[in-house]
Amino acid sequence: MHFVHHAFLLDHIHAIVRLDAMFGDVVGVPIETLFRLIRKGCRVVFSDVMEICGGAARVSQIAVRRPLAIGRNIDLVTGTDLNEPREQASTMKYVRLQRPLVVVMAPTCTPFGPWCHLNKFLNWDGWLRSYEEAAPHGRFCGEVALVQLKENRHFLNEQPFPSELYLEPPWPEVRSDSRVVDVVFDQCMTKQRAACGKLAKKPTELVASDATLIQPFQNLGCSGDHEHADTSGGKCSPLQLWTWDFAQRVVKGIERLAKTLKVAVVHTAPPAERKGQLQ
Description:
This protein is of the alpha/beta class. It starts with a strand and ends with a helix. The N terminus and C terminus are likely disordered.
């Protein structure tokens, strides 16, 4: 199946292809090229990758240098609170309009991770607060994954292993889809280090819509040739930032998937030229 980037509201015969004005992206594409790709049955996607709960957005930072077309990083640090219904609705609209080939997600894991049962027992009120802060956007990420599956696009979601996020609806429905795959690996093999400088094992699971996305993480169980930092309890919090090695592997999977799907890219004008088209 073929994909084509950046379509479709056409400005007369010059074919200025616009995304919705609210997203501020304007590109120029020859009309004959666009129609030729459409006749070949190309599907429309506006970006190769976007991030939800992406934090420092290291995947986007690497992807844009490949170059891959990137969408927004929708996260609390970029001003979007995905626990709010209005923000969820706006983000879902963006996903449906942007049609990203892959949505990369890493929702908060604190109340769901390996220590959650002990935390419930030792500090129920604290665990409940963390659950109320994490569950709404964790479930929303599941909704995004469902949309991607239903519209024949892709997602990748990261959580510690094991994680009870996948007991939250609609994640059971997502994981029951025959296309959905997973891989468990140790982050010490992606050069993750604790504050003390030692490698941090941090078993992690990636759940994705295609095996190509997780292939770069296969066979990454700890090699056993190094000492691990103690990351028990709350000591895992500083490890939420993905290493550059981790992010590069994610991008490599996206690149391979795009190649497998024979993505047809309509090259866009540089940002300065795009601004000129608006004048």
